[in-house]
Amino acid sequence: MGTGSVNLTTLLASLDRLPALPATAARAVSLLSKNSSSAAEIERIFRVDEGLAAATLRRANSVTYAAGASRSFGLKESITRLGNRTLMRLALEHQAASTLRDAGKCYGLERGALWRSSIGGAAVAERIAQESRTVDPDLCFSAALLRDIGKLALDALAQGERAMNWGRSVDRPFVDIERERFGADHAEIGALLAEKWSMPAEIVLAVRHHHAPPESPINAVCDIVHCADCVTRWAGLGIGDDGMCHPLSPRARDAVDLHRERVEALAAYGLEFVTTLDRELHGNRTGEPRTTGEGDDVAGALDTGTGTMGNRRKSA
Amino acid sequence: MTVSRDAGRSIVTYALGSCIGVTLYDPIAKVGGMLHFMLPEGKTSPEKAKANPAMFADTGIPLLFNNAYKLGANRAKLIVCAAGGAEILAEDGHFRIGARNRTMLRKIFWQNNVLLSADETGGTQSRTVTLSLATGTVSIRSQGKESVLWAPAA
Question: How far is B148 from chain A (nearest CA, A)?
Fold first, then answer.
């Protein structure tokens, strides 16, 4: 992932406005990355976002954290019980949507597509980490959620030019095209952005390597985020002008023990996670065909059971 | 999955990768439908196949046809098209999800004596598929270029 003579800081400095996290998330990340922050300081920030406060209470009072407890915990106590990584994951999960929803325009992504891909990849990475029992699932969730933040900057750098015009890409990695066009790819740019957002070093590293996990030394979080990115693509999320042109590292695939059945189960899990969230938050039907045009809405899925297609050929 | 007989509308599915979009259209009844399935077989996730049969080819395709019949489509008149089924670049054959989706589609159609009128599958590019419910025209947008996969004879 060499950047040649390009100075990434100069590249980002050329933007009129740097992509930013919402104020609540930015303040939360800044506090949580310092181990000296008090629960009272964090509480003041979390209380501002009703959804975030509710999610924090839910998590702290869940079976995992509150098994055997004789009473439920308030917000401040919940913050004390949950670690910084879990709190950061909750803050990003609830706050990043507004930043990611409009991103990816230069890749031809419709509104919300990059957020769906980000949150789907995060859910897949978390699931892989939970099953591995060796890596923090909350860390993997946050890293995968932020893996494509470099596309926010590319949207601005591209100045309206679509990615399909950056170079022929059907037979080579799309990050090569990005490097030729901008001198750096969205993973490198995203890592710099993550640094500017005061993200922990593990997240910065995973964002930088989400299309090419390091071979030496091997990093389990990078491997998981990379594999989750591929699974998300198989789930049909976040595919734009870059198509399927992001190869899967065979070494990371084997390290994470990705095999066909597991990939299919993870893709189905990721899509279901996004579909449920998208329906609850925005009333959308993720990934389903939609009707367009004028007229009464008589279209829609008919929720009937499955069956044969009728008139089955007897000789078949 | 969407099935409709509103001739004033189109049905669209965006950015198919290894997923496949299947369209069908009865030009007499003006009934059309589209399925966007992700994986070949529901047996890998039976609970999800039950809750969301459109996610899988083997549960979604029969449902698409049956839902079109319920809106008045005649099987003998149906024009059926498919697009998608791309592969991750440089995939070494470990997963072949796009290929397996394509194979399952053809297997189901062969078993049920359904002929594809047109298809565009494979490669590494994404495809957005649109079905016009007024004419049955199926168009594909990929890499900024729009092409007609099927259209009625002029």
Answer: 18
